[in-house]
Amino acid sequence: MTGPTRPAEAVITGAGLAVAGYAGIADLLGPVPADRDGDPLAGLSRRLGRHKDRATRLALLAGGRALADAGRPADDTPVDTGPEAFDRPGGRTGVVASSNYGNLDTVCGTVDAIDAHTYTGASPMLLPSTASNVVASWIAITYGMRGANLTLCNGATSGLDAVHWACHLVRAGRVDSVLVAGVEPGNDAVTGLAGAPAFDGAAAIVVESARVAAGRGAPVRARVGRYARRADLRDAVAAVAPGPVDLWCEPEDGAAEPPVPARHRLEVGAQLGRRSGALGVLQVAAAVAWFGRHPRSRALATCGRGGEASADAAAALVLAAPEDRS
């Protein structure tokens, strides 16, 4: 009689970014680029962005770059969705998206159109985009990913929660890999609701089974450690017990004191506006970039109650460079 199967190890094999002025994830470690006048969606094909809201388009662009970085270039040609499709590689790839404001502009615009013109004013092309899971759904449809699919709208911790659930799916054997996207659109609808300038962009990572990554010869960019979600930041950090870290990614609006000894602290994209559900994924992408420069180091990503008065919870996630086995 054999013992229980050991959970698969979750690693990160790719990361991508869609933020104006940022050439790649390494820019997350430095000051905000001086030239941010361009539209990040200039790199997205017109066909790929047709009939999709801004959040979805940003996530598609960042996701495609993350897939390419992981050695899995995205194929955006039409895909077969018949039952036999689940026996193909795409059937073992999932999508987890994080966005607290996502398609708010589409929802508001649709409500306004119906209010002014009754249901006849609603666009049949845009109406499906009012669904809460639209970002993750379009990523899956576009790139042929037929595994588990969900969107998290979970407040300040949403981005790190999304990374956790992606790892959970991999460790449980539900999928071999997950594309995780954290995105928030910068538009009038979001700014009006948030009461502050909105971040406009997306970050994406590829979470993969270490066994599958090794089988296809993919380099591991980071190893994912313990995660915790608690009512308070220090309680969340204590639950993952990271010890001293080389890089601490601060929560939104910063925190007065580091919850653990940290050689460096980084408030990722602090000048880019309210990052909300994108923040946790931005932090993980920044950690991946950090490990590229510091191959034997550890990082702590934190979101939620710390500097954010409105947050109702906090999350902490430990990450390590591939060579770090401490």
Order of neighbouring strands in the sheet with most strands: 3-2-4-5-1-6-10-9-7-8
Q: Tally the beta strands.
A: 10
Instruction: Tell me roughly what share of residues is in helical segments.
Output: 25-40%
Shape: globular
Which CATH architecture of the largest domain would you pick? 3-Layer(aba) Sandwich
Report strand %: 15-25%
Give the mean pLDDT. Answer: 85
What is the rounded Rg? 19 Å
Q: In this structure, how is the largest beta sheet organized? A: 10 strands, mixed
CATH level-3 fold name of the largest domain = Peroxisomal Thiolase, Chain A, domain 1
Q: How far apart are the first and last residues' alpha carbons, in Å? A: 33 Å
Low-pLDDT ranges:
76-88
N-to-C SSE string, H for helix and E for strand: EHHEHHEHEHEHEHEEHEE
Q: How many discrete structural domains?
A: 2
Can you tell me the CATH superfamily of the largest domain? Thiolase/Chalcone synthase
What is the number of helical segments per DSSP (H or I, 4+ residues)? Answer: 9
Structural class computed from helices and strand pairing? alpha/beta
Return the CATH class of the largest domain.
Alpha Beta
